[in-house]
Each structure stands twice: as C-alpha cells, then as structure tokens.
Amino acid sequence: MIPLIAPSILAADFANLQKEVEMLNASQADYIHVDIMDGVFVPNISFGIPVTEAIQKHAEKPLDVHLMIVNPDHYLEAFRNAGAEIISVHYEACTHLHRTIQAIHKLGAKAGVAINPHTSVELLGEIIDHIDLVCIMSVNPGFGGQKFIQNTYSKVSRLKELILQKHSSAKIEIDGGVNLENAPKLISAGADVLVAGSFVFNSSDPGATIAALKSF
C-alpha cells in the first residue's frame, strides 16, 4: 500500500512560509499537517488561526490540523473556517469525545483523534467507528525532532486489529520521528498516513524526501 504523506509545516522556514507551502503543492505530499500547540496541553507554543489562514491561502493540498490544545471544542469552528479539512483532537483533552467528534462532522470536516504515547489504543473501542483518522503520537508531543518510540509498531498493529474488528474506515496516522528507516515497518504494521516534519524540511531536497517516503 502506498502511504499518504503529511509533511508537518511546523518544521518549515517561517520566514519563507509561502515558498514552503508552494514546494509542498508541487510535491507528492497528500496533506499539509498543521500542528497547533497552546503551551498548556503541551510544553510549547506553535501558532494559531491567523497562520493557519495564511497557509490555507497558498495551499493546494488539504490541511490536516492537529489540535494539541486544551478545550479544543472552543476552536473547532474557527479552525474549520481557517481551512482545516481534517481536525484531530486529543483523546486526553476531551471530556466528551463523542460530542466533539459530532461537532467536527457537523462543520463538514473529517474528524480525527490523536493519542499520546502512554494512551492505549483499546480506549478508542467505543469511538473508532465514528472517526475518520487516528493519529498515534510516536514521540511525546510538543517539540519536533524527537526520537521515535519503538513501541509504536505494536500499537499500530493493535489499532489495525481494532479497526477491522469494528468495521471502521478510520485511517491510521503516525506523527513523530518518521523517517526512511521506520516508514516501511510502520506501513507493514498497518499505518496509512505518515507525518514527517524535520525529516522532510531539514533534508537537502524536501520534494525528493517526500517522494522517497511514498515509494514503499
């Protein structure tokens, strides 16, 4: 299976944001992954709605918006209006997850649920057939360039079993530390979407790196 690739714009050169987005437009990337961090849910602050709007202004690929924030329900409509086509919220941040998923769908976006490294995929059993995507964090969220957590492979396999068992159409997305070494193993385990930030944007030829990730 050819994976979908979602380069994380968080690792881009923000002084040349339009140029970076245009590079992704011309590449084999399938989505543009947009990491929103509030400094509360995760120990870092990235950017918010105005920058998301600026990315959307030039983007020709769907925006895959990952809300690493507390109280995500308060911002769903704003990010949808800013151009998000996929909105992922964290399991750990949502008290009423089913209601949040319903709200995302009502806005006309695809709904994703992200889970931190310590969160078991089995906890998604009651919601898996209502969502479009599960984002498995393969690093601790908050900073780019972290080392990939090896337990992710078995986590992907268990999630794939759950998806098949529940007859869900949810895609499995991996976010954090993805590279050419672990990508084929992740795909073999059942991953559908690979998020890559530093590995893409710090390479000498980001377009070729994206193409290489799609070649498995």
TrEMBL record:
Record's cofactor remark: Binds 1 divalent metal cation per subunit.
Keywords: Carbohydrate metabolism, Cobalt, Isomerase, Manganese, Metal-binding, Zinc
Catalysed conversion reaction: D-ribulose 5-phosphate = D-xylulose 5-phosphate
Keyword match Transcription regulation: no
Record bears the keyword DNA damage: no
Active-site residue list: D35, D175
EC number(s) given by UniProt: 5.1.3.1
Source domain of life: Bacteria
Positions with a binding annotation for a divalent metal cation: H33, D35, H66, D175
A Gene Ontology biological process term: pentose catabolic process
Pathway, per record: Carbohydrate degradation
Residues the record lists as binding substrate: S8, H66, G142, F143, G144, G145, D175, G176, G177, G197, S198
GO molecular function, one term: D-ribulose-phosphate 3-epimerase activity
One Pfam family cited in the UniProt record for this chain: Ribul_P_3_epim
Gene Ontology CC entries for this record: cytoplasm
Cofactor(s), names only, from the UniProt record: Fe(2+); Co(2+); Zn(2+); Mn(2+)
NCBIfam families documented for this protein: PRK05581.1-4, rpe
Functional note: Catalyzes the reversible epimerization of D-ribulose 5-phosphate to D-xylulose 5-phosphate.
Family per record: Belongs to the ribulose-phosphate 3-epimerase family.
Name listed for the protein in its UniProt record: Ribulose-phosphate 3-epimerase
Organism: Algoriphagus lacus
Encoding gene, per UniProt annotation: rpe
